[in-house]
Structure formats: C-alpha cells, structure tokens
Amino acid sequence: MGQIRTLQAADGHHFSAWETERGAAPYALVVLPEIFGVNHHIRTVCERFAQAGFHAIAPALFDRAERGVELAYSTEGVQKGLALRARIPLAQTLLDVQATARALNVRKVGVIGYCWGGTLAWNAACRTHDFAAAVSWYGGGIAAHCTETPHCPVQLHFGERDTSIPHTDIAAIRAAHPEIELYVYDDAGHGFGCQERASYNAKAFEEAQERSIAFLKSTLNP
C-alpha cells in the first residue's frame, strides 16, 4: 500500500521517503527509523499506522551519506548504520525530519521514532516547532539531551532489560521531566517492538503500540 516519494530539505538536499496512507487518514505521522534505514520493518511500521488511521511517512535519513540503505539486524548492520550516522550532522538530519513533517501538509503532525529514530524524535520535539506530539521507543541518546525542553507533548518507551540504555539514564530523564509519560516494560530489551529481531517481546510491543496510538490520536485530534 506504500510508495516512494522524493522530498526536499530547506538546504536543497533531495531524499527519499516511504509513504503509506489508506483512504482519508485523519492523522499525520512522521516515522523515524532505526540505524538500519527504511527497511522492511519500518515499512511494516508505517503500514500498521496507516491501518490505524495515520498518513505515515518514513524519511530515508541516510540518503545524505548513502542512498538506498536497508541494513540487516546483524553486527555488520549495526556497524554500518553507526558509521553512516556519524557522517551526518544532527542539524542536517533535523532538516530532513522537518521537511518530512511539512510534506504531510496539515496543521498537526506527530513524530514517532525507534532506536536512533527515538532519539531523533526527542531532538525534533525540543529543537523544532513542527510537531504537535512526539513518541520515542528505546531512544538511547535522550538522556544526553534530557535537560532540553520539548515544545510538544512527549511519550517515552523503554525496555527494562535494555543493556544499551542504563537505568540511570531513565532515572535522569524522569528527574528532568516528571511531567512526561514514560513507560518501562518488564522483561523487554532493546528493539522489543521489532518482530525481525531476537529481542522482540510481543506483550511489550502490544502495550507500547496501544499507548502510542492512543497518545498520538489524543494530541493530534483535529
């Protein structure tokens, strides 16, 4: 049901995005990928949101370094994803995120991100004014920026057994922003929402997905 479209950032950079929409979707959502690119999993995420009433677009954020990137959930995939991410300044990535939001052409746009995308969703909430709601799943870099203030409501999701995000990081986020909805899922590790990863946890995924959709719909309600 999805299609590839080309978008342009404010600095003139052209990049690809995966767009999914079913009929007259009442909600608009930017989906920010993990460091594995806009792969099969992220396209599936977009489709799920389309089924729930969202016009969803996932930008190919690696296009500034290498086009057409779809990485496997492997050690090699992680290493290449990290290397590509390191080649792109955050300010440029946020230009692409903003361009994706504006391509939806509605007043209220939400953003949801996973892993690297989860951190970017926080960055976008704090450093831009393009979003009416932001959701992050296992955003490992949020703690480093938790003193920043988001410009929209935010909801955060973490796995209790995520070895890449220390409990001290989650505690720091809670302390800095006690007003933010923050959930920690028992027995869930990093990437618990991806069925293509060994860390997939069906119970945690279902709870986080239900909460995310309810939060986004309540804040993006026209």
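The above is record 1. Record 2 follows with the same two-line structure.
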Amino acid sequence: MEKGQIRQWVWDELTRRGQAAFPKPVHGRIPNFVGSAAAAARLRELEVYRQARVVKVGPDSPLHPIRAMVLRDGKKLYMPTPRLTAGFVVLEGVEPGREREATSLTNFRRFGREVRLEEIDPIDLVVAGTVAVSQSTGVRIGKGAGYGDMEFALLCRLGKLRPDTPVVTAVHDLQVVDAPDHPLGVELPWDPHDISVDYIVTPTRTTAVRRAHPQPTEIDWSLLEPKRLRALQPLLELRRMQGGNP
C-alpha cells in the first residue's frame, strides 16, 4: 500500500471505531485519539524520558498531554511552530497547574519564548506526531507535509540533535499498522528523508523498536519549491547562517 492509502485507512478506521478525538475530523491531521493521556503515562515510565532534561515535542493535538507532562516534570520543552512558519518556542518554569494551558496551540507562544536556531539547547529526546508507524522497522509517516522530518534534519545539521537521539511516538494501537493483531498488517514504505522511531507508546503497550534505517541528517533542498521554502523561517535562517548556500 502507498502512504496515502495507509493514512486514509487510519483516519477512516479511527473515526469508524469511535477512537478519534477532538479536533475532528481527524482526516488530514496527525489524529488525536482516545487514550492519549494513557499513552503519555507510558512514556513517563521509559528510562530515556526520565533521563532527558531537554525534550522536543511536536505541536500536534495527541501530544498535548506529553507537552504538559514535560513541563510538570521540570524539563525544558521545545515546540516547533505549526508548519515551521516561525521557528521554535522554548517553555520552562511554567506556574504549577498551568502546564496544560501553557502547552496548547492557542497559548504556547504566549507562555514561551521564540528562539533563534543557535540558541536551542542540545535535545535529549524527540517526541514526534504520527499517522501510522511500523513496530518492526520504526518507520513512521506523518500527514504528508514532511515538517517533522525537516525539523530533525535541520537540528542535526546544527548539532542540536544526534542521529542516535531517541525518538518516541505516541499513537493509538490502530496506528501501529504492522502489529501481529492489526487488521491491516502492512509494513510502511520508507524514503531517505523520513525519520524513524525508537519507541512506540500506545494506550495499551510500549514497544522498543530496532530501527531499520538511518535518520535524515541533511535537508534535501531539492524537495523544497522556492515558494514553500520562503514560508519556512528556520530553513531560511539556516541558509543565512550558511552564507546563503544550502
């Protein structure tokens, strides 16, 4: 199956089974799902989370419980702005009890501070939003725009991430499309610019993955049309840092 077909199946099946959560419809998004808080609690049990002091978490709705948990646990949180239009925002030291409010898409820029690329601290753990993931290879696919992949490669290029920095995703069990008991039972196709995951947490299980592919560590500039590149502020900043050449 192609990536688009797998995405469509996940969106349809989460909706059909009543496992899709607000905001709806989940089609075209990193889908929120019933049990996202339980998946976050499983992440909290992982040693790579406990040891991490600086965590990057995507801005997607199903990751909201994780973003709040990161602040509640006294860690530093980096959030990319949606569609990478304005770079990254750092949050830390939020007043106790306001972590969920502070990490919502409505408020995170008010509670946090936008940072230049060179200001970003080395990141210990990445939590990525996902539409579908393979537990046998670690391959994940997002909603198709490639922002998570670009963020990883960008931060690797700057030395803020390493190729072996742990990557976790939190999903519904239906999104683990090659699990033995899964109705779809397919492995995901992979492209060199795709990031893979090391751990999958769902409401019911935690899986340590043996990644089958290397992480992307360079921006594939050939995939970016000039109009789209102009809308991606961090990539423009990277080009300026490199003297105008990708």
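Residues 150 and 219 are 6 Å apart (CA to CA).
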